[in-house]
Design a protein that fits this description.
It contains twelve helices and two strands; from the N terminus they run αααααααααββααα. It has 240 residues and is mostly helical. A hairpin with a 3-residue loop joins strand 1 and strand 2.
Amino acid sequence: METTKPPPALRALLALRWLFLLLASLPAAAQAQAPVDLAQRLQACAACHGKEGRATPDGYYPRIAGKPAGYLFNQLANFRDGRRRNADMAHLTAQMSNAYLREIAEYFSSLELPYPPAAPVQATVAELARGAALVHEGDKARGIPACAACHGERLTGTLPAIPGLLGLPRSYVGGQLGAWQTQIRSARKPDCMADVAKRLTSADVAAASAWLASQTLPTDTRPAAAPAKPLPLECGSAQP
């Protein structure tokens, strides 16, 4: 019987995934002797997240390059431990130790990459203005803190474990807020983002995600130092 071969792109992804899992399952001593370095091992990530973790504005997958290592470690652990749901990520991380997840996180966090200007988004002037207000000011009457209060004034994230919000596809930002609203995504307790997301309307989510996606990353994409002031909400995921 003749079998149908998967398309070339899928075959390449499967091969990279096999290599990624094989090397990840090796003991630390064997990994040190492996004939490929960490960057080569992590080429499997590029199939979704783009070359060097840059991602692209027309896809759903997020930018991971340059984000705080603590944040990246937390997310990898969340996928492995079931707090975030994605079949591919759960499969890739299932057999990985905390030490190896930290190594992956440190690698992508260390990348400092230039980004092109943000692509235009389809949104009204009023919608973008509402999004900007939510990001920079929040909505005190409804108990919604400004995004910038935790993610930094430049929105590039803050150390040690709060991510940047720029350079992400609109669909990804909206999808993650929706995942928190529906409890598909969660983090260590107290889960501050789940609390915030539940206070947002669908119009709020659309406005904030549109405005964030329309903003170009600053020249310095590194996360800011840890905030001097306490965060507006208790947040279990603010530490790695």
